[in-house]
Amino acid sequence: MNHDIEITQLDLVEGGNVIRQGHHFTLGFTPRGENGDVVALTGKDIYAVFYDKNGIRYEGTAEYVADDAVIRVTITENIGHGTMWIEFTATDPNDATYKRKFPARENNARISVTPSTDDLGFVGVKSITVTQLRAEQEAKQQEFEATVIPQVDDISTRQLQLESDYQEAVAGVTVDSEVILARGGEPTLGAHLNKVNQQLAEKAAAADIEGRGINADNFPVIAPEVGEEGRIQRAIDYAVTNGVQRVILPAKIRQVRGAVTLKSGVTLVAFNNKLINKETHITFLKMESKTKLYGIEIEGKDHIVPNVAGRGISIEGANASAYTEDIMINDVFIHDIGYYGIYTSFAKNVYVDKAKMRGLGRAGFMSLSPDNVNIEHSIIKDVTTESGNGYGVAFTRQSFESLTDYPLPKDCVAFNVIVEDVPWEGFDTHAGQGVRFINNTVRNCKVGIAVVAANLTGSIDYASNDCLVDGNLIFGGNSGVAISIAGAGGAIGAPKEYAKGCIVSGNRIWGGGIAGNNNSGSIYLVATEGVVVIGNSIERANESGIILYNTNIGFMVDGNTITDVLSNTYSLAPCINVRSDYNKGTIGKNNAMRKTPSLANYVSEWAINIGSGVNNEVTIDLGYSTCTNDILGGSGQNHSYGTLGGSSLIHRGTASPEGVITASIGSIFINANGGAGTTLWVKQTGSGNTGWVGK
User: Fold this and answer.
1) Which of 77, 245, 630, 664 has its CA 20 to 30 Å from the CA of residue 480?
2) Which pTM does this prediction carry?
3) Region 391-400: what's the mean pLDDT?
4) What is the distance between the alpha carbons of residues 523 and 235, in angstroms, rounded to a whole number?
5) What distance lies between CA 153 and its chain's CA centroid?
6) Under 8 Å CB-to-CB from 529, ≥6 apart: which residues?
7) Which segments of 68-187 does DSSP mark as H helices, in order?
8) What is the CA 409 to chain-centroid distance, rounded?
9) Spatial separation of the C-alpha atoms in residues 330 and 602, rounded to whole Å
10) What is the CB-side half-sphere exposure of residue 366 using CA atoms within 13 A?
């Protein structure tokens, strides 16, 4: 028997699966492989077949639309009525060896055509959901198994008879010889019964794995077990022993009292299954390397008071030298969990897709020292906090100094994830390296996305580097920033480590910033190097739109649109705020807007504010502004206004530019602390930092 056959799937994404007979219709399906990845069929010939139990009802060509990643087929003839299955065959005109069929299982693509007056009858159209269809699939599969494998029923009957015989044997034991006979060589009668039950379960499993996998319900719950974790574990263990890659849980609500371990090489298919424990906080499922999980619901005790024992799914390597890797989780629902929905530690190459998590004590998705850990197309909602900390998605590390023992998180992705109702941070990385937050949505979280340092108790802190925050939609409030890029701590101008090479681009932000705190804003930068903030749109930020607090070196802020910065106490209410010391970089062409002055006491009063800090060197190109005022200078050093051919022509500072400011001939310097003959300076000779003459 071949248990490694390729599994292909079809997701119905256009049209419905209940159709009136005679209606012309178009259906669109996304083709997927075993791992759930979209299979690209560009340039392939697609042939469609609709069939039922009586034979083929329609044959014709279909097309693959690459932009939508969809196989699209249009039916313009009467194909009869009833339940029909759909099969697509893809071939390559340039490769005679290429041939793939979608789907691998017939129940994966099915439609119901209801009779119409074309058949002299009338039946109303019904609505059917994906969940209902999946339930029908499982029911049909179980019905099929029972029909083609009658041995399973025979084994179940024998098992019941054996249990009955056991009870009679116990009742009738009167002498030692009878006890020995009833034990069958085992130390107790119960042990003998359990042994035989296990043998029967293994025979049932052997009869049930033809082309599908092992049915866990063929394994009995063995006394004194009260939960189903033992039954499921025995099915998984049997699969490992016998080289079978797939274990199936038929649809059922299953009480469990302890963890199930999904062992290496096994895929658990569990659509319409629920593992539940409302009595104690437990870890429900542990996953080893090279495992896959599809379609399970996990319900824990509660999440109101965080309890570290409560975890939905746990993926844990032994240490930094023994990562658990190559894990896939798809289409799971995890809720009412005491601490973590999904937890990883020392994990690599983990892919979570279509996960729904709700009601969590500490975090939806927590990953410690991860390497290429990814979560996509998922929803996380309603997280409690412990000691003020709670997260939607976090890529971080243990708070110990050794990078050998506790590596930094790297190359992780959160893509198209919705996080709502988290009292602390929606998305977070502490000391992430190459971590990417892309196309996510954040609602009702104190902080939207935090790319920050891992601050330790010792002298070593680690910053995040080369991270990307792109295309996210953030609905911020007025109690925390929307996006924070922060290096490791230290003195102003001398951080322990800069956050280097991070990009904040194309985000759409509503709100953010801390009302009443003029050191905050919607996008917040501190202790960074080479950070780019470009193409973001910010509306109704609190106190500042983009704030460069201190110690930001080589920054670029360009192409952003900032509208209606609000404050009731900060009279500047600037769209871009160079707030304090040691900020050196470029502010390019941004749009600074004041649309609704009635929103607060102060609304976008200044397009750009250069604060009164020291050691600032900022080149500014105003761009477009409808603010009350354009640029407010300060008493800081070396501010440059306007560019021509990339060279600053006008500079501003608090002392003589001679020997300090490099500029071309004709440049002007304004000394804010100057007097007669020392306020206005003109560069008359040379191309370096000398040749300045006071006027």
Assistant:
1) 630
2) 0.68
3) 91
4) 51
5) 43
6) 487, 498, 499, 500, 501, 552, 553, 554
7) 130-148, 150-172, 176-183
8) 15
9) 48
10) 24
